[in-house]
Amino acid sequence: MKRTNKHLGIKLWSILSGSILIFLVLYMNIYIFSKGKEGLSIDFLMDMPKGFPLGTDGGIFPAIIGSIYFTSIACFFAGMIAIATAIYLNFYCTNKRIYGGIHMVIQSTAGIPSIVLGLFGYTFLVVHLNFGISLLSGGMVLGIMIFPFIEVKVEKAFQEISKELIYASYALGISKAYTFFKIILPICFGEIISAIALAGGFAMGAVAPIIFTGGVLYAPEPKGIFSPAMALPYHLYILIGEGISIENAYKTAAVLLVLLLVLNSFSIFIGLFRKVE
Amino acid sequence: NEVNRDQAAESTEDVFKSQILFKGSSTLAPVLSKISTEFIEEYETWDKVNKDFPNKSLDIFVSAGGSSAGVKSVIDGSSDFGMVSRSVSDEEKGKIEGYQEFKLGVDALTVSVNPKNQIYKLKKNLSTEEIQKIFSGEYKYWDQVETSLAHEEIVVVTRDLGGGAHGVFQKKVMGDAQVKADAIQAPSMGALVTKIIENKNAIGYASYGLVNQNGGKIIPLDVDGVAPTKENIISGDYKISRPLLVVKKGTLLPQEETFINELLSEEGMKTIERMGFVPAK
Amino acid sequence: MDHIIETKDLSIYFDQKKILDKINIKIKENKITAIIGPSGCGKSTFIKSLNKMVHEEKNATIDGEILLHGKNINGMEKEIVREKIGMVFQNPMPFPLSIYDNMIYAPIYYGIKDKEKLGNIVKQKLIIAGLYDEVKNNMKMQATKLSGGQQQRLCIARALTVEPEILLLDEPCSALDVKNTANIEEMLKKLSHQYTIVIVTHNLAQAKRIAQYTAFILNGEIIEYDETKKLFENPQDERTKQYIEGIFG
Amino acid sequence: MDHIIETKDLSIYFDQKKILDKINIKIKENKITAIIGPSGCGKSTFIKSLNKMVHEEKNATIDGEILLHGKNINGMEKEIVREKIGMVFQNPMPFPLSIYDNMIYAPIYYGIKDKEKLGNIVKQKLIIAGLYDEVKNNMKMQATKLSGGQQQRLCIARALTVEPEILLLDEPCSALDVKNTANIEEMLKKLSHQYTIVIVTHNLAQAKRIAQYTAFILNGEIIEYDETKKLFENPQDERTKQYIEGIFG
Amino acid sequence: MHKKFEKIFSNSIKGITFFSVMILICIIIFLIKESVVIFDEISLLDFIFGDKWNPVRNPPNISIFPMILGTLYVSFVAMTIALPIGVGAAIFLTSVVNEKMRKMIKPSIDLLAGIPSVIYGLIGLLVLVKFFEIHFDFSSGESVLVGGILLAIMVLPYIISTCDESMIKIAKRYKMASDGLGISKWHMIRYLILPASKKSILAGIILALARAMGETMAVMMVIGNSPIFPKLLGKTQTIPALIALEMGGAQVDSLHYHALFAAGLVLMGILFVVNMLFYYIKKNIDY
Ligand SMILES: Nc1ncnc2c1ncn2[C@@H]1O[C@H](COP(=O)(O)OP(=O)(O)OP(=O)(O)O)[C@@H](O)[C@H]1O
Ligand SMILES: Nc1ncnc2c1ncn2[C@@H]1O[C@H](COP(=O)(O)OP(=O)(O)OP(=O)(O)O)[C@@H](O)[C@H]1O
Ligand SMILES: [Mg+2]
Ligand SMILES: [Mg+2]
Ligand SMILES: O=P([O-])([O-])[O-]
């Protein structure tokens, strides 16, 4: 019985999909880099926005720094609450109703348009808690936005660990916390990092949540978490939206992609030192 | 919360408030950020602006979000100034205690088309009725506007119908007529201009500032025989225009006053003009 | 009171399916009790209920009472119960760590820091489980790479590191050869002077050899529970008789 | 030629450690061959080498030859070898699918599409493995929720669906009670008229009961390989003797 | 000592979970609070099922049925494109390419997720919309189809990354058992890995759908934002686009302003219903 041609369909499907994926990745990146490479220089990275109107010349240094801050705050905040929530739901929550309820809330809020989250952040963080238009407010709103994405992925990672392994630890009378840190975390570490990286990319490219909460058109590097700041996507948005400079918008996008690449290679780097199951 | 705010305000009396935040119209935001950047570069710290001020860094921030968001932030007190590129309604004024406004300039909306569209050669001028008919969908094809044009569908591009820019256009041109439902609503002036640049059948009301910045890539038409030129806009002959305002709740702090004066100075007006708008003075 | 664990009308359901049906049993202190019965009758479920492991299954419903030293375990924290009642599962499940790290996992948790002490515990428990000689030069090897029988012995040794009062063993010798089985049986007999041991086994000879008491479960019910000798030599129930004669189950 | 598999100087290393040392054995066709030996001696490794499963381990090195029907299996595709040589692993590993889907997994691959036929195969093989009655109303249940012994029987039934020429069984009865064990043994005896069966077992009585040939492995070497009767009644090697007398292992 | 640690750990976990759920509930309450005002003026049913949107007219029309359909349609198109490609690509990554290649491709997929939506919108406008205008002779290329294609690219990373991690785990864990039956890789993919990944695929769909239904900037730039009933090749508007487009211009506390929030609330309601649906599907898978 020769079965070489069996499953031709699924083979074709996966190879076709893979090719489409690779094409898309290459296309998007090459498109952006080819449009953005001209005049992309150290000066562009290290300079303040200049020119007339502002942004047609000079660089995007403060926006790079601002984006790093915004993304870090968002990832830290969202990572913390998302991992905690995933731990609770997967290891502590015994009540099916609560479990289902929390899930519903999380998944339903995942689709709230980010602009509405921004308005919520504006009302709640900026005005009510008096954080002002600041890195903190913007970062937290971004965090709220990516929280469901991290939570769902981390919880899935937890669920996929063999139950028996966890039970083997519980059966030794060992607490959930200890089991978590010694057995579960090492196994899931890579996946948690990759979830945060994926969501971090989302946060790094988002404009709507920070329009009302933390982003400004121009600012030097932020002095603290209570200052407003520039951000790459916001800068981009203004460059494109007000028709200031499409070329610089592509350059900015290229820089943003490089930044993401750095973020990702960081996560790969961490992943290399951890062995998955 | 109110109490909090008041305390914050009080403490700023003794603690010098070195930060000024502008929020609002995306049309004005680039202007303000340009002027403020220059101001900051020139002086760096407040004491260099005026000896009476302490040696504190000059932090002037500009944030966009739309004219109404600017008004909202002034009401909420989350920003010091609002930028508005339309007139402020009485209802809004009522919500702002001690309302003050500073007019920086005027922006006109030009009825513009793609350079590939032969209309500007054949028929440089559109009457208000024609514009109404184009925007309301009564004219569907270009050859209905001018018979020698191609029989191609007119692509109408507007800004969001609830926004300030469209409000001006509605009032000054459309009157009671409604823009057709399948018009493209561009999310920003830049997108509107991009669409006109990219689509040869597009027509839309591009900001005067952007027409100047995109010299040649889009072509403004005359309206009722009046060309959108600086003189015509100042004189009011060109009718589709809107004011560019900065609004404030309550009295100005001395440092704020200094900056507003800077805005209204000759330097400031020059910048507004260079951005393509018509300065107030 | 010579019994250490008592269940009262213990019933367990998975989803809607009844797996255990009103189990009433008193497990004697410092004795070895064997649980026998056909595959799928509920033996594992029963012993897993004693240290609250069944409680971890989301689709399980538990009725009735389980008393440890006369106290209902429902009122006790899981960790406390499990510290007192150690367990070795039917499928050996070493942690994806080195052999050594598997062994010091619990001792470190229970506060032993000293390297030397840890080393001693590891050595001593591995010797008891009869694994020491085979792995002494390979302590840093991934435990998941061990052979089936070696994994089983590792898990027994690991359970011993907790020093529980009661030890639940689910077919601990299923992957072991004669010699290792004898070894483990020897160890259990010795331990039974200080510990209470409950062992699930499908090896009737083993039950006869080491257990003072034996319970026979069939379809989730305890059919008979008695001194091993009596149960095997003079079963009261027809079904028990048939089972130990190998007719049935 | 009455043998179906032959190994020539088969040595296997994991990393640098020698696990099997120059194994030379001829496995007789349509007979049951038992592999016995103490835990960790290399039994599983040996039978896993026969159907190229050891070849999947990244850290394994394989020396020597394995001949199937006189042809070196190195030259054959893995799938072909494994289609001919079925295997049941020591640790039952049901797929995370329903019981039914576990059972039809291989038949579909081997080209059976017809629903009814599939249903028949499932039923027939489950009956052979003695699991049918227990699961017939629960065919859609996740197989991973079965009890230990049930999982083991499922895996045996699943291996049978391939209809291989040779069946390798690694301690297939370790989690089974007397009745089920007898059942499986009965089945193996019947199958051996058409199939060649190699069974790893630590249960010497079982080897005696069902195997015509027995090989005794110690520390990766074949110490003795002979007809079962001869090997048990009259072992040639002192170590074999000691092992079957249970002194050593 | 560990008891104390466990106490601290479990309490902080519970505390943080409570905190995060509270935030989400606050958002929901905020949304409701900002929305309800409009229901003095218009009934919920009219708001949802009416077909005219023109909030600045007098009297205003505030009904969002075209936008609801637009949102659903665009997301549906996006998912129909992204799901097969995403799952296929996940299989591709697990089974076709080797470990090294996979490690190279994976981060670039994350990169795809990080491209700012404004850039997606711009490329969509300059490439896709243009493409349809030139090659299909549309008067304007802004359409549901373009929005759907663009969104599909944007959500692809979410589907792929949720699926391929589980697929790799399943492949690793059961490879031996499957190989032992003499079964080829592709049969294993089709009959073991795919069915066993159902849950992960579902999780991927939930994430991707949430992302698709909530996406604002990119969609807004390529669908024309006309509040009319959607056609595959015609313009339409989605709820997030509507909100983003008009929020900056809606006067504070006007009916318009609150109607935009109400639209957001309706979107959340839709997502809730969709999630309920998935919840029941998942329950059936679980058995
Ligand atoms: N992947 C591996 N890497 C390193 N060592 C291994 C690996 N697999 C098995 N071993 C070692 O090889 C030896 C033989 O293992 P094998 O599984 O063949 O034993 P066995 O005879 O089947 O024992 P048991 O009866 O306990 O199952 C053991 O010492 C084991 O630790
Ligand atoms: N999590 C579960 N969900 C549903 N059914 C289950 C679950 N765990 C076990 N069962 C069922 O409960 C019954 C008893 O299982 P248990 O593991 O207690 O049997 P056992 O006596 O240990 O059998 P064996 O000797 O084969 O290990 C079996 O029919 C099994 O299919
Ligand atoms: Mg069991
Ligand atoms: Mg073995
Ligand atoms: O942002 P606007 O300038 O359109 O109000």
Automatic annotation (TrEMBL), chain A:
It is found in: Cell membrane; Membrane. Its main location: membrane. Residues 64-267 form the ABC transmembrane type-1 domain. GO terms for cellular component: plasma membrane. It is a multi-pass membrane protein. GO terms for biological process: transmembrane transport. InterPro entries: MetI-like, MetI-like_sf. Gene3D superfamilies: MetI-like (1.10.3720.10). Belongs to the binding-protein-dependent transport system permease family. This is Phosphate ABC transporter membrane protein 2 (PhoT family).
UniProtKB/TrEMBL annotation, chains C, D:
GO terms for cellular component: membrane. Residues 5-244 form the ABC transporter domain. Gene3D superfamilies: P-loop containing nucleotide triphosphate hydrolases (3.40.50.300). InterPro entries: AAA+_ATPase, ABC_transporter-like_ATP-bd, ABC_transporter-like_CS, P-loop_NTPase, PstB-like. It comes from the Bacteria. GO terms for biological process: phosphate ion transmembrane transport. Keywords: ATP-binding, Nucleotide-binding, Transport. Pfam families: ABC_tran. The keyword Nucleus does not apply. The keyword Iron does not apply. Signal peptide: none annotated. GO terms for molecular function: ATP binding; ATP hydrolysis activity; phosphate transmembrane transporter activity. This is Phosphate ABC transporter ATP-binding protein (PhoT family). It comes from Marinisporobacter balticus.
Automatic annotation (TrEMBL), chain E:
Its main location: membrane. Pfam families: BPD_transp_1. Residues 68-278 form the ABC transmembrane type-1 domain. The chain crosses the membrane at residues 12-32, 64-97, 109-132, 144-163, 200-223, 257-281. InterPro entries: MetI-like, MetI-like_sf, Phosphate_PstC, Phosphate_Transport_Permease. One of its GO terms (cellular component) is plasma membrane. Gene3D superfamilies: MetI-like. It is a multi-pass membrane protein. GO terms for biological process: phosphate ion transport. One of its GO terms (molecular function) is phosphate transmembrane transporter activity. Keywords: Cell membrane, Membrane, Phosphate transport, Transmembrane, Transmembrane helix, Transport. It is found in: Cell membrane. PANTHER family: PHOSPHATE TRANSPORT SYSTEM PERMEASE PROTEIN PST, PHOSPHATE TRANSPORT SYSTEM PERMEASE PROTEIN PSTC. Belongs to the binding-protein-dependent transport system permease family. CysTW subfamily. Part of the binding-protein-dependent transport system for phosphate; probably responsible for the translocation of the substrate across the membrane. This is Phosphate transport system permease protein.
